[in-house]
Write a structure and sequence with these properties.
This protein has 218 residues and is of the alpha/beta class. The protein has 8 helices and 7 strands, in the order αβαβββαββαβαααα. The chain is globular, with a radius of gyration of 18 Å.
Length: 218
């Protein structure tokens, strides 16, 4: 039976999250990795969270729905339906959240984009890939194990190499210097740009643009 009021709310944008249609066309899962609670805010390990925040601010998406072991927000990026995700499982169990969200919304691995930190890249440097191993990153190890595949796109955001004699866990949970933070803020914006290109023009185009950026600057 036709529901006039439901249709009116949909047309005027006053429809609630629970009323919005599920599974109507392709949806992309975009996840930024990090650790929850203020204790870990702005640490090197939380750059994935900050890219999600940048995307949310830019596209008017509220990532505040606590569900499926994460903070979720649904919206549109460049006309594509997306669900932004910040896992609340802590870094080493990130895969629990992503698998739960992917199963619930019926999202295939190739439509899952993961954004995370990388100590092998200079602060602010981006590397985009269509797939690959975890490279020693515990969050990615968990995701690959839970999804059962490593064939999904990702954006690695450089946080700089660990200083000699410093424990790795202490380093990734440290904060950026003022100079580094400036570069990181730019990297968060560039990573958000890359997401838009990946959704509309494909991962290869984003790779060609952003993976070569550091070399051109040098």
């Amino acid at each position: 039976m036709f529901d006039f009021w439901k249709m009116l709310k949909r047309l005027t944008g006053t429809e609630t999250k629970d009323e919005q249609p599920e599974g109507d066309g392709k949806m992309y899962l975009i996840a930024g990795l990090g650790n929850p609670t203020k204790e870990y805010d702005k640490t090197r390990h939380n750059v994935g969270f900050h890219v999600i925040d940048t995307l949310a601010d830019r596209h008017g998406i509220d990532v505040g729905e606590k569900k499926l072991k994460g903070l979720l927000g649904r919206g549109l990026i460049e006309g594509q339906k997306v669900i932004l995700v910040k896992p609340l499982t802590y870094m080493n169990s990130s895969g629990e959240c992503l698998r739960a969200v992917a199963d619930y919304y019926k999202i295939a691995p190739e439509d899952i984009l993961v954004i995370y930190d990388d100590i092998s890249l200079e602060p602010g440097q981006l590397r985009i890939r269509t797939g690959g191993s975890a490279g020693g990153h515990n969050g990615m190890k968990s995701i690959i194990a839970h999804l059962g595949t490593q064939e999904f796109p990702r954006i690695r955001v450089g946080i700089g190499a660990k200083p000699p004699r410093m424990d790795l866990a202490d380093y990734v949970l440290s904060r950026f210097s003022a100079g580094e933070q400036e570069r990181m803020d730019e990297a968060f914006r560039e990573a958000a740009d890359a997401v838009g290109i990946m959704l509309t023009e494909g991962t290869e185009r984003a790779m060609n643009r952003f993976n070569a950026k550091k070399k051109r600057e040098e």
